[in-house]
Prior knowledge:
Elements: H1 3-30, H2 38-48, H3 53-75, H4 84-122, H5 125-131, H6 136-172, H7 178-183, H8 185-188, H9 191-217, H10 222-256
Amino acid sequence: MNVAAIDKILLIFFHELQSYFTLAGRTFVRIFRRPFYYRECAIQFDTLGFSSLFICTLTGLFSGMVMALQSLIQLKPFAATSYVGGMVAVTMIKELGPVLAALMVAGRVGSAITAELGTMVVTEQVDAMRVEGTDILKRLVVPRLLAMLVALPLLTIVTDMVSVFGGYIMASGYSISPLLYISGLPQFMLFQDLIEGVVKPAFFGVIIAITACYVGLNTKGGAAGVGAAAKQAVVLSSVLILVSDFFMAKIFLVFRG
C-alpha cells in the first residue's frame, strides 16, 4: 500500500469522524429547540424500549445464573460461597449489565433505526421532508436519541435486577438462604457503583442512537445498501460500546481514588 492510498484512507476516516460528531453536536443543540415532538418521542420510547424488554430480561437472567454458578464453583473450596451475591451484583451492575444490555439493544434497535432511516433515504422520503422545510435532525434523530437516553438505563436496571435474581436461583441450590445472599451485597457494592451502572447505559444509548441515525441517513445503494448499512451500524455501535466502556471504567476508577 503506497502513501497515496494511506492518505486517502485517512482523509475518508477523519471526514467520517467529523461528520459523525457534527451530527451529534447538532442533534444535542436541537433537543432544546422548538418544536418538541412529544408524540414521536413516546412512540420511539415504546418501539425502542418496551420491545427490547424481553431480550434484556432473558440476557440478564442467564448471565446472572452463569456468573453465580462459576463463582460458586470457585468459592466452594474456600467455604466462601456466602459472598456469591455480592460478586454477582457488583460484576453485573458495574460492567456486564450495562454492556450486555447495550449490545442486545444495539443489535435489535440499532439495526432497526438504521434500516428505517435508510429506507426513507433511498425512497427519497427524507428529501421530500427537506423540501417541505422540515428539520430532519429535529424530526427523525432527536426523538430516537431521547428515547434511547431514557430506555437503555431503565432496561439496564431491569437486566441487573433479573441477573441478581438469577444468581440467587443458582445459589439456592447450594443451600444459601435469601438473607445470606442479600447480606453479601453491601460488602462488595458502593453507591458509586450504582451511579456507574446508570451513567454507562445512558452514554451507550447516545452511541447507539447517534451511530444508527448517522449510518441510516448516509445510506446509499438501494435495498442492498440498507442491509449493508444495518450491519455496519450494529458492528460500529458494538465496537464503540466496548471501547468506551474501558475508558469510562478508567475514569470512574480515577474518581474513586
